[in-house]
Structures are given as C-alpha cells and as structure tokens.
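re the bet — no i am not wrong, look at it urself. input seq straight from the record:
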Amino acid sequence: EEIGVLSRSAFNSAADEPKISTRDDMIAKVSQPMAQVPPLAAGLLTSHDFNQGDAGKRVKKDVMRKHMTRVISEVMDSDPKVVYIGEDVEHGGYY
C-alpha cells in the first residue's frame, strides 16, 4: 500500500511540472554545460604514433568498434551475470 501512495505522489508531482514544448527548452533542461578541452602538450601525440608499429612497420589504425567489442567480450568472460542486449549483437557487437 505504501508503494502505491509513493507512486501516486511521484506521478502527481511529475504531472504538475511545467511541460517542455521546444527543442531549446529541452536542451536547456537536460544538456550538460560545455567544458573546454585543454590542448595537448606539444609533442605528446603525433600522427606518427598512430601509423607506425614496431620496427617502423605500418599498422592499421584501430577503430572504436574494435575496442568496444573487445571490452564487452572481456567483461562478459569475467562475470557470468553480465548480459549484452542490442540490435547488432549477433552480427559482431558494437556499431
């Protein structure tokens, strides 16, 4: 019974909130403030770091999808309670 009272109270409180009717109002309500990203220190990373492997051999750049799929696989292997649900799971994971 107590949960019903709390649910009705929460619903009534939400119903009384002012309605959002424009995109600008929605962005103002839910968006995080923009934070300036500081520039990298000079020489910290270069395009050379991303294109050369050991002994100067060229290597293919890794893509985010590859890393996300690997991390998801590692987490699922380490914890049997983890479940991955999504549209493209059968076709290779994260896209």
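see?? DSSP finds four helices and no strands in the chain. told u. also Residues 41 and 82 are 39 Å apart (CA to CA). so pay up
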